[in-house]
Design goal:
Layout (H helix, E strand, L loop, with lengths): L2 E2 L5 E5 L2 E6 L2 E6 L8 H23 L1 H4 L7 H13 L41 E2 L5 E8 L13 E11 L8 E8 L6 E6 L8 E16 L2 E4 L8 E8 L1
Antiparallel strand pairs: 1-2, 2-3, 3-4, 5-6, 6-9, 7-8, 7-10, 10-11, 10-12
Helix pairs in contact: 1-3
């Protein structure tokens, strides 16, 4: 509450205002009033905080694919997508976790909207988890990427799959496995893979990157074209063993 000071001036709180003296003048400022938050508001805040944390964790695990470049809003878009997955329904008392949330909506998520993978490879990869806990991509044939869509018409490319796995008993620590298939330039490329068995309850996220290099080499090393303006990376599978 406000008090009358020796100079017959008020100082203190009156309702939503705070009266004080500054540089010889009496000023009145509005003060922040913290409204009582409903259970739903608190729950939404918790799920968003968790989404921010897990978005950072996912990007950290996929860093080898993303370090060449993403669009400026990739992290915010991923956080938003995870927030929707972690957002719990009315009356739910505890936030979802990376192991219980439905992340199926992440499939198709593009980390670089200016160079998405989908137009280059309009193909759905039929990943599946086998009964013994392995991640499997049955034999498929993937059509060649149209060279006119690549940074250099003389480019060669490979499709890289990174499998990120979070076991239920190791907290936020993730393991990764990488599979690479060099693609033919004018005919389909056969692809198939199978991982080792994962423990039951393991969360899996698979991202694919189109890695491109041109015909120029330096001492036999490939001259990669992936950059901040061209780095197609997409989430192609999520699941739980």
């Amino acid at each position: 509450m406000a008090q009358l000071q020796r100079k017959q001036q008020l100082e203190g709180v009156i309702g939503p205002f705070y009266i004080r003296e500054l540089n010889g003048k009496t000023i009145m400022q509005s003060r922040t009033i913290n409204p009582r938050q409903s259970k739903g508001t608190r729950a939404s805040g918790l799920s968003f905080s968790y989404a921010v944390k897990q978005s950072k964790a996912v990007r950290q695990v996929l860093r080898p694919l993303l370090e060449a470049g993403t669009d400026p809003y990739a992290s915010q878009r991923l956080t938003g997508a995870l927030h929707q997955a972690f957002h719990f329904p009315q009356g739910y008392e505890e936030p979802y976790t990376l192991f219980t949330a439905d992340l199926s909506a992440l499939v198709g998520f593009e980390f670089h909207q200016r160079s998405p993978l989908r137009p280059l490879l309009p193909f759905t990869f039929p990943f599946e988890v086998t009964d013994d806990g392995c991640l499997c991509l049955p034999a498929v044939e993937v059509a060649a990427v149209p060279t006119k869509l690549l940074p250099d018409t003389r480019s060669s490319c490979a499709l890289v799959f990174m499998v990120a796995s979070w076991a239920p008993n190791v907290g936020d620590k993730a393991a990764t496995a990488v599979f690479s298939f060099e693609m033919h330039r004018h005919i389909p490329t056969a692809m198939a893979l199978q991982t080792d068995a994962y423990p039951e309850g393991t969360r899996l996220i698979v991202a694919a990157q189109l890695l491109v290099w041109n015909g120029c080499t330096v001492l036999g090393d490939k001259n990669y074209c992936n950059s901040k303006s061209f780095n197609p990376v997409q989430v192609v599978f999520t699941g739980v063993v």
